[in-house]
Amino acid sequence: MLAVLRRDLEAARRRDPAARSALEVALCYPGLHAIWGHRVGHWLWTHDLKLAGRVVSTFVRWLTAVDIHPGASLGPGLFIDHATGVVIGETAEVGEDVTLYHGVTLGGTNLEKVKRHPTVGDRVTIGAGAKILGPVTIGHDSRVGANAVVVRDVPANSVVVGVPGQVIARSRPRRPAAPAELEDAGLLPDLVGVTLQSLLSRVDELETAVTGHRGDGSPRPSEAGVWSGEDFSI
């Protein structure tokens, strides 16, 4: 248990550039407090002290605004950044060295007393506000974009974006020893934007073939990705 707690502490120090010392992280990081509190509650839950486990989880939720059921299984090295609003259900399983941002939900979609929450593989990063629902599996070394809604299995080494979540295979698979993916949020693919640009280009080609000149009346973004429009008082 102590080794796991130390690994959780080191994960927060390693993945948050704002962390200045182990003491600061241990005293001031609600995500770490939520994980440590859950480990106590989970131990009680698995040793047939379920009411005590629920009491601990309720106290931790009040203290940190993180709701983790004591029945959930969390691997070592988990880092919950900013923490507020994270919900992890009873039958959820989270692997090693996973990173969760605020507002993440690992939720269930079944009222039966069966496996009804997600299984998250090792070294997965789940962006702010993402919802993973049902007994789906997120493969190792994958990344779920902010606000994505995932309702089906995700293969290892994938990126998921959109609502519902669309799975994109990586062109360059992530190495297990690579650092956590915290810095390339702006590089997540825009599937809708790419699709619209492709359709607009195709329409231009067809208009050119039919009329002999390229159409220019349809709205489209500039090369910098900026759409033109009127100014609004908002």
Task: Explain how this protein is built.
This protein has helices at residues 2-15, 22-28, 30-46, 50-64, 191-211; strands at 67-68, 73-74, 79-81, 87-88, 93-94, 99-101, 105-107, 119-120, 125-126, 131-133, 137-138, 143-144, 149-150, 158-161, 166-169. With 234 residues, it is of the alpha/beta class. Strands 3-6-9-12-14-15 form a 6-stranded mixed β-sheet. It has a 5-stranded parallel β-sheet with strand order 1-4-7-10-13. Strands 2-5-8-11 form a 4-stranded parallel β-sheet. Strand 14 (158-161) and strand 15 form a beta hairpin. The longest helix has 21 residues, at 191-211. The model has no long low-confidence stretch (mean pLDDT 84).
List keywords for this structure.
234 residues; alpha/beta; UDP N-Acetylglucosamine Acyltransferase, domain 1; six-stranded mixed β-sheet; five-stranded parallel β-sheet; 5 helices; 15 strands
